[in-house]
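Hi U.,

Before I forget, here's the chain from the pilot set. I'm dumping it here mostly so it's searchable later in email.
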Amino acid sequence: MDLYIMKFNSYLERERELSNNTIESYIRDLKQFDKYSKENGLSSITDANKTLILTYLIYLQKTGKSVSTVSRNIASLRSFYQFVLNEGIIKKDPTINLQSPKQEKKLPSILTSDEVEILLEQPDIKCTKGVRDKAMLELLYASGIRASELISLDLDDVNLSMDYILSSKDTSNERVIPIGKMAVDILTLYIKEHRGKLVKDNEEKSLFVNYHGKRLTRQGFWKIVRGYTKQAKINKNITPHTLRHSFAAHLLQNGADLKSVQEMLGHADISTTQIYTLITKNKIKEVYKKAHPRA
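Structure:
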């Protein structure tokens, strides 16, 4: 790996407090650009100019990369070159005035309330695994947290007496999120009667653990969601993020204000949250067309 990419990696981990997934994306993008730079005769990524970067972005588009992928690469390059500029490694930022391609607003896929009910009823709560799985699904829909945030929860991040969880603790995205009675009830059952059957080490602090008594992985949780989706026979591509989207859309459809939903989701910019208002507007149009006699 290029020396300056390594320094940037250390900076992100030490000072920016970004999630591991974000850091990995930045570094992966930079490694790919570093490889491209070397193939074009540069000894270091810090020698790149704006022309080479533009050529690289065109190359990404020609090889079929999506608009969102190209935009993310621009964000990674901007952050990196701002870092090396501030460190005095380069004298001019080659990404200044670099424009991101315009992205079409793609509406996220959501579940109806009935589909959510069907999915959440799939785990068999007569067994420990079923109780754990239902607790995870209920909590995901009740709070709107990301899958990575869910599996990162520790036992002491849950306050069942006050009906809230503490998500993304010790990061810039830390937030307190209220949860409803159904999530509280199944979490109480899981923590009091079933988590102890899975945990092998009394020092284990993870809220959700696997059969080995260790913190459940993101991949493991995705497999669980896929399994219940297949079992529920819902004809949609459901991922853990689908429940997050459904959480936000259902809150707005039922009268929640945009600012509150933004805070619960942990969006830095309210424009990110506004995408869910488009779903609400589409829903109103559907109701109108079905119900109005002259629609």
